[in-house]
Amino acid sequence: MQEAGAGLVVDAARAEPFASVEDYRAAVGRVREAAAAYYSGPDLAMDDAVYDALLARVAATEAARPDWKADESPTEVVGAGGGVVGDVVHSAPMLSLDNVFDEDTLRRWAVRLERILGRPAGGFTVEPKIDGLAVAARYVDGRLVQVATRGDGRAGEDVTGQARRAAGLPERLAEPVTLEVRGEVFMTDADFERANAMRTGAGEPAFAHPRSAAAGTLRAQDRTYDAPLSFFAYSVHRAEPPTVAHSDAMAELERLGVATTGGSVAGTPVCATVEEVLAAVQVLSASRGTLGFGIDGAVIKADQPADRDAAGSSSRAPRWGVAYKFPADTRMTRLLGIEVQIGRTGVITPVAVLEPVQIDGVTVTSATLHNFDDLVRRNVRPGDVVFVRRAGDVIPEVTGAKLDERPADSVPFEPPVRCPRCDGEIDRTQKRWRCTRGRACGAHESLAYYAARHSMDIEGLGGKIIDLVVAAGLVTDPADLYDLDVPTVAGLDRMGEVSATKLVAGIQASKGQPLARVLTGLGVRMTGRSMSRRLARHFGTMQALLDASVEDLQQVEGVGPERAVTIAAELVELAPVIAKLAARGVNMSEPDLPPPAVAGAPAAADGSATAVPLPLRRPDGTPMTVVVTGSVPGLTRDEGNEAVERLGGKSSGSVSKRTDLVVVGDGAGSKADKAEQLGVRILPAERFATLLAAFQAGDEAGVAEALA
């Protein structure tokens, strides 16, 4: 919770005041109790959206009836009075920030700041608001000597012992300087999973939320395990007043070895105007689910020290900064039940059925529970009030339950003994349980995936027809599709000769799809469309891929030891189906591409296919990372990504500092904005289409012109 807490002064005008002093005082008590649970860990008493709304009503009531205002009001103290106060006095108060929730209130804050300064501010920084625990870390002569929590803003607890383990908070700085670093201790998404495995392995209930997990871990003194922690700095304090911009001070901290958000995938852009700030906030919000760590908003600060000095602070919050809160991505709701889902490869997964809840603007009614071991580890039961999170486009997941609200008659969920779909045996040797019949169990799902547009693109082969051919015993795997003929299909219920002719023609036409599409359609575990294309380009033919060893597979970009082993095992399992497909004439090779240029090599005699270099390669020969957003003339979305890889690049779905090029077409959204914000090169979709055509024609001059 970076430099943010109670402040709802900006948003109070939109909230409804309480009608009675009793209701007001009860709300003050609820807010303080929730804040105490939030700041102390290891559980949450109230989700963010409810907390923010309740606190806004408290502020609105105090504005309407100042005579009711309680001495312990959460609007008057840092962190709503929830911080655990210790005996470490801060060198300067750790203030809170006022919150805003929309663009209009952010603009009003900027206008008010300009009025205070008597001129426009000299720039702003936009930082991700980390959902963690604020601390102050003191360095003397470059050595870490003490770490304290925020507490009540004036004094906090000493947590030096646990905080020393946080990645990003070094024991020694690169230079022997004396300063105080303030920032957030938090858990990344991956560390949260590891921490929960450690916690449940030690016989304790799972953490419900990464933020409470970090808070509980930071205060733990006698645990038998060391859960992972991370740290990002958001300010630096020295004995002398600051003379450099905040952005420069953060860059200096990075040089000294302290992690900041500026060095993360989120970045810390510097903006000249409030409109640029709003664009940066939108980019950050859009990338929220891809960062690998939780954020609940953006923090906007005046960058120049002179502006901060002129703006000053109230007793609780600085006037030169504000927190823009995003919609909550973790909410509480009731777990109505647990269903068992069987995937196309026979994987058996528990799925949570939820009382509908709004998360980040989306109504969520179901969420993943990952696997049955994880279900036991998280200690979640039907009837529980559970925490559900959804960040960006990430599939909603249940992270834990409020154990203090568990019904007295609740019972643990009983996993299936046999496959619920086909009554086959279940293989429980791995975390992800599987029906021993594998794809035969999930014939409908595997056939639908094989026929999908991004796979073999068999027009007309929809779910109803798949049901008919499977029920009739005509098809059990993708290869059987190619044995279907018009009379057989026409004899099925509600199928005539015309529709049967079109369907059979579509199935036969799919034989010509490239190897990458065949691999995608087969659904090899731990691969997707992009990985299937890489495998197809690297090996060229299905036989070469089948003959590849685990070591050979690891030569493909993005294939590590674990993935290589899984792919090799999957190919062995799929070999009979692959053989049947090949026997029926399905293409098992990837089309040749124009060869890369060789120094001194002559052009082709007829001039039609000269050797050209792969245009989307860096000078060192490695693939450029390219993002395609919006439509490219003549190409589908999948074909646009395929084109990137045909041109020697690596397609990506998100824009970061490591992105080399962003192709922008009609309908492009936040990715284009983020590319512009980060200074990543942008190529219009029309020129990308021209580049592809020139490359396929072997026109080296045309390639150069398209990239100029």
Automatic annotation (TrEMBL):
Its biological purpose is as follows: DNA ligase that catalyzes the formation of phosphodiester linkages between 5'-phosphoryl and 3'-hydroxyl groups in double-stranded DNA using NAD as a coenzyme and as the energy source for the reaction. It is essential for DNA replication and repair of damaged DNA.
Q: What is this protein called?
A: DNA ligase
Alphabetically, the GO molecular function entries are:
DNA ligase (NAD+) activity; metal ion binding
Q: Which PANTHER family match?
A: CHROMOSOME TRANSMISSION FIDELITY FACTOR 18, DNA LIGASE
List the transmembrane segments.
Answer: none
Whether Metal-binding counts among this entry's keywords is yes
Q: Choose one Gene Ontology CC annotation of this protein and give it.
A: cytosol
Domain BRCT, chain residue ranges per copy: 624-682
